[in-house]
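Troubleshooting log. The previous structure file for this entry was overwritten by mistake, so regenerating from the original sequence record. Sequence copied from the archived sheet and checked twice against the printout by T.R.
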Amino acid sequence: IPYAPDTLDELLTSVLEAQLQVGFYKNTCPQAESIIASEVRRALASNIGLAAGLVRMHFHDCFVRVSKFNLLLMYQVPAGRRDGRVSLVSEVLANLPGPTFDVDQLTQSFASKGLTQDEMVTLSGTPFDKMTNHVDGPCFDLEKSDAVGHAGAHTIGRSHCAAFSSRLVDFNSTDGQDPSLDAAYASQLKQQCPQGSNDTSLVVFMDPRSPYTLDTAYYANILQNRGLFASDQALATDGTTEDLVKQNAAAGGGIAWKRKFAAAMVRMGQIDVLTGSNGEIRSRCRFIN
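Regenerated output below.
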């Protein structure tokens, strides 16, 4: 994710837990973090779209079942977590918040993992949907302020048309499309996702303003009724999260929001951590031993 080197690299030690620590591998593999960070930067240089995928995998791991592999190392990450031994699609459906969730459902979903509503809104820019074959890890316990942060992850990445198409046609018995959706934006989405198309590869950017940059444009979008998902738009219309959305939108691309996002990501990485003799250390990161 494009970022200023002197911002997200700052460690927010106040949110770290004792069982995880930066430099966990300093004796067994002293260069582990720098090697991984270098490889991630190299991969992003050749395919910037991987940034959204890494954030999404981290979110899925933490909300479903813990895995230490899928971490975005653009800021210092406390290490030491072990991998889970179970990988079930059913756990994804049961744990991940859906694109049609309202604010109460989103807040409850994040709170069940120990995250605040502010963290939820901050992370909501996180690219997530339930159309995935990636199932590794549970990470959840937030309040409403954390939940608003979760929304911020939708500032990068793309979504399949099927995840939001219900907002474009036959929305309900009286409206052809979701009345909370900006008309011009809805028209644009209909062109990108033609009704009746069977092409499952069709995708659109979640933040058309700056699709490859981690910033606060996502919040400005939903304030203009240009949130791609109903769950996005709900954040700007619910009285408990509206002010948080406005605060994040006003932050622009400054360091304050980036620090908040980094802190929320670290917090999310601490959900249901496996350490010691729990879990396993995988021989191949994508598969249980």
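The chain is about 35% helix and 5% strand. Archived copy saved in two places this time.
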